Amino acid sequence: MSLNYVTIGANDVPRAREFYDALLPLIGGELEAEYMPHAFCYQLRGGGRIWVMSPFDKNAASPGNGAMTGLLCESQEQVDAAHAMALAQGGTDEGAPGPRPLYGPDFYGGYIRDPDGNKLSLVHFSED
Q1: Is the pLDDT score of 128 beyond 60?
Q2: Buried b vs exposed e over 47-68: b needs ≥16 C-beta within 10 Å?
Q3: The model scores a pTM over 0.70
Q4: Beta strand pairing status for 69-72 and 30-35?
């Protein structure tokens, strides 16, 4: 089994689009579909997808407590660059990039929240 897609709620989809258009191509994402101003989808390396959209139930989008989407990067430098780009695009820092030995000896990650407060992990597993 593999994960096919993740949906991230947004209250201002055009603003979220600016954020994700800056972030996801940096780590190999390609825009796959857009239904603006309501939704868009990026395909990631490996085939998974991220849909960003306004909620179907018409209520406000809100981040889930304990929910986080992990995005695999190709290098520690890519984690660093994506983290910096996310902050430059209005994201907030939830943990600067660096080694996280608590999660394993090869885990290098940084944490951010998008403009709607959704938590993202940018992660690389070194092969040293």
Answers
A1: no
A2: ebbbbbbbeeeeeebeeeeeee
A3: yes
A4: unpaired
